[in-house]
Write a structure and sequence with these properties.
5-stranded antiparallel sheet; 2 helices; globular; single chain; binds adenosine monophosphate; binds zinc ion; alpha+beta
């Protein structure tokens, strides 16, 4: 585990996080600064720094991320109204945590284009 990775520390149980769901590949955390009525973070257990660092070995993992997103949206009752899965990659996109993660946002109308 890289030093000072907050998501690795949460996954390892070293610092607290609110787990919404977890399986062998991902954990789903409640965002501490929610931007919508539902704001979850789908976080692969594997430490991958950014989207640019993905390799073909991660293809099934990323497919799983989106399957989990759809299933959770369905369970939350927001699948039909609509929801968004967002990955911020690198500073101009607003990435602040350097462990790949996917925001699942829903429960309100989401503007487009995003800021
Ligand atoms: P990003 O800016 O795309 O890298 O997203 C990082 C997200 O992680 C932000 O929405 C933060 O609110 C969220 N976040 C940061 N620290 C924690 C934490 N300890 N537990 C849950 N969410 C966090
Ligand atoms: Zn990490």
């Amino acid at each position: 585990m890289p030093d000072n990775c907050i998501f690795c520390k949460i996954i390892a149980g070293e610092i607290p996080g609110t787990f919404f769901y977890q399986d062998e590949q991902v954990v789903v955390l409640e965002d501490i600064n929610p931007q919508a009525p539902f704001h979850l973070l789908i976080v692969p257990r594997k430490h991958i720094r950014t989207t640019v660092d993905l390799t073909t070995a991660d293809n099934a993992l990323i497919g799983h991320v989106f399957q989990v997103a759809g299933r959770i949206a369905h369970d939350l009752g927001i699948a039909e109204d609509g929801f968004r899965v967002v990955n911020n990659c690198n500073p101009a996109a607003g990435q602040t945590v350097w462990h790949i993660h996917f925001h699942l946002l829903g429960g309100r109308d989401l503007g487009w284009p995003p800021g």
